[in-house]
Specification:
The structure holds two protein chains of two kinds. Chain A is an all-alpha fold. Helix content of chain A is 70%, strand content 0%. Chain A is built from five helices and no strands. In chain A, helix 2 crosses helix 3 and helix 4 packs antiparallel against helix 5. Chain B has a domain of 223 residues. Chain B is built from 20 helices and two strands. Classes of the chains: A mainly alpha, B mainly alpha.
Chain lengths: 150, 500
């Protein structure tokens, strides 16, 4: 188990950095469809903030903020958002992932709907990548035992 | 209206279900099985619908996101794809029915995880089969492989190591495939298979294209366990849980064979892979070696699952032999053998799993006198074994018949001799098991209760949910044999590449 570090410097720096990292992660996700970046990169950045939190404050503390069940649900939820957006397109009569069909339910014209559709999918990808990265990290550092180990 | 979207549904429905199973596993473990069953059933029905459409109106193309093909990802389904889709999803249905009892016994704590991975594995295999995009194929190949590693790792105490070896070798194989895609992308600027096929002929003399072809072939050979690159297979498949070994044994290698056909004859033209380079001749010799090697090592095995693993290596050799005969007969035999082998391997592995479930028997010695205990299971094993050997009413005979005719038409007498010799060797392999099952008396050490009991051995048959899937595969073996002519006439004759 990773313990809370005794040294105050890493903890303070982590406390300053974590919100900044998370905001930057959200920024990368939100601008992924228009500029370099995207769900995967943003998800990794978000996960990095949780990993930093684990290293500085210990696994116990991180788990209290971001429970394992939550992590599990999020890792499925992201893909689910992706697939559901695709299904909506199917149900609206277009091909799978043809977001322009979403203009029927979104207040936007087909071009704008494509833009929004891509955004929704990037959000889904970001959520899943973040959750999976965090659970990979926890699995690795605890030898798959989560509660004990290390 | 939904009919035209079947190519998306067949992939996306299992994908969604896989993640729903993961979440639903917390509320109810029982629900996982039924959700997986639903996903598989929907995929199977979708594959039948696709096959029907292809038979009636020819090749289907489905554009993801509505983008034009060379830029967007396109799913293309011709006769070969549609045929493979039905095989893969059709074989998944009995396996998933069978998995219920077997997984409850072998992995009671990991039921949701198992069904999540299983559904994803099926989705990956279907995706490899359906896609018309070389890079998309790589992604789905990795989905199928990674779930495969995880599922194999769930097995007995040696499984994690076997799975790790498979992971290393399999990743190298996937990297080779990816390198091949990369080379082609640099040369042509395209990833779409049909588009590549149009752009490549002008570049056939380029060294980079030749290197790409070599990377493809080595990568796929690793994934399909083609002879010198098969070392990961026996360990990985024999230590996996019974359901998993049954499923990967009857689908993974066949899908690999499909990818090989696709790359050799769709992305590249037969003129490149046959006339310009002696690829088929080399593959023919290696395939002959694979058949002999697989069967000889199978004779040497004592563990039933391991024995079947070596038989798979020989069967991969058969399929490649048919492709490398490079004529109509041989190719028909290869495609027919993909179908038949899926059913034969499913049958044998399911039977071995059922016997392990009931008696814990793993080695041939423990199979003594099994016929009295488990008559139906033993009979099923006999049918599957006869089919692998190639005895006439079963389907194994017909595909081998075409394969032999193919090699004879190509005037490769050594290959024909190797086919017949390895059939005889597999007869030795299986008759040794059958002799123990049917005619040897049961080992007396197993019952300690009282004296040498003359009491008739009690019937101890596998549960119905295991027997029914086994019977389905048996019916498949027999019916495919009887109707092989119709299957060739309706589907396979359209899959033969031009110029054969």
């Amino acid at each position: 188990m990773i313990q809370r570090t005794a040294n105050i410097i890493p903890r303070t720096i982590a406390r300053i950095l974590i919100p900044a990292i998370q905001v930057f992660g959200l920024y990368v996700i939100a601008h992924g469809h228009g500029s370099p970046g995207g769900g995967f990169q943003g998800g990794c950045i978000l996960a990095a903030s949780f990993i930093l939190m684990t290293i500085a404050y210990g696994l116990e503390d991180t788990k209290r903020r971001f429970t394992e069940n939550m992590n599990n649900i999020l890792s499925s939820l992201g893909v689910f958002i992706y697939a559901l957006t695709g299904w909506m397109c199917l149900l609206l009569g277009a091909n799978f992932l043809d977001y322009s069909a979403l203009s029927a339910i979104l207040p936007a014209d087909p071009v704008k709907a494509r833009y929004l559709g891509m955004f929704i999918i990037e959000v889904g990808v970001g959520i899943t990548v973040m959750a999976v990265m965090v659970s990979l990290f926890i699995d690795l550092v605890t030898g798959g035992k989560h509660g004990e180990g290390l | 209206m939904m009919m035209e979207h079947l190519p998306a549904i067949i992939i996306v429905f299992p994908l969604i279900m896989a993640f729903l199973i993961n979440v639903a596993g917390w509320w109810s473990k029982k629900a996982c099985f039924y959700m997986a069953l639903l996903a598989v059933t929907v995929s199977f029905l979708a594959s039948l619908g696709i096959l029907n459409t292809v038979l009636q109106s020819g090749t289907i193309s489905y554009r993801f996101g509505g983008w034009e093909p060379p830029w967007g990802i396109e799913y293309v389904i011709d006769h070969l794809n549609a045929f493979m889709l039905v095989i893969v999803s059709g074989i998944t249905l009995p396996v998933v029915l069978y998995s219920k009892k077997s997984i409850e016994q072998e992995l009671p704590k990991k039921i949701p995880q198992f069904y999540t991975l299983f559904t994803l594995l099926m989705m990956g295999l279907l995706g490899i089969t359906i896609t018309g995009d070389a890079f998309n194929l790589y992604v789905l190949l990795e989905i199928a492989s990674i779930t495969g590693y995880a599922l194999i790792g769930l097995g007995d105490e040696k499984a994690p190591l076997a799975s790790f070896n498979y992971l290393i070798i399999g990743t190298i194989g996937a990297c080779f495939y990816l390198l091949g895609v990369g080379y082609l992308y640099i040369m042509t600027g395209s990833l779409n298979m049909a588009d590549l096929a149009q752009r490549l002929p002008a570049l056939y003399s380029s060294n980079a294209v030749m290197a790409a072809f070599a990377f493809f072939m080595v990568g796929i050979a690793i994934k399909m366990a083609f002879f010198p690159l098969h070392v990961w297979l026996p360990d990985a498949y024999s230590h996996a849980p019974s359901t998993v070994s049954a499923y990967v044994a009857c689908t993974m290698t066949k899908v690999g064979a499909y990818v090989m056909i696709r790359i050799m004859f769709t992305v590249f033209e037969p003129s490149f892979s046959i006339q310009l380079h002696p690829v088929t001749t080399i593959f023919g010799w290696v395939a002959a070696a694979a058949m002999m090697y697989g069967c000889i090592l199978a004779v040497a095995q004592n563990d039933l699952k391991r024995m079947l693993c070596y038989i798979i290596i020989a069967e991969v050799g058969y399929i490649v032999m048919g492709i490398s005969a490079a004529n109509r007969m041989g190719f028909t035999g290869a495609v027919l053998h993909i179908l038949n082998d899926a059913f034969m391997m499913a049958c044998l592995f399911l039977v071995v799993g059922a016997i392990y479930y009931k008696t814990g028997a793993k080695t041939i010695g423990e199979y003594r006198g099994l016929f009295k205990k488990m008559p139906f299971t033993s009979m099923s094993f006999a049918v599957g074994a006869l089919s692998v050997v190639g005895v006439p009413p079963t389907c194994g005979f017909f595909s081998k018949w075409y394969l032999v005719l193919g090699t004879i038409n190509a005037e490769q007498w050594v290959f024909a001799a190797a086919l017949l010799a390895s059939s005889l060797l597999s007869a030795i392999v299986f008759f040794r098991v059958l002799q123990n099952m049917f005619f040897a008396p049961a080992a007396s050490s197993s019952h300690d209760q009282g004296s040498e009991s003359h009491v008739q051995e009690k019937r101890h048959e596998a549960p119905g949910s295991m027997l029914i899937p086994i019977f389905v595969t048996i019916a498949g073996i027999l019916l495919l044999g009887v109707f092989s002519g119709q299957i060739i006439e309706m589907i396979i004759q359209y899959t033969v590449p031009e110029g054969f």
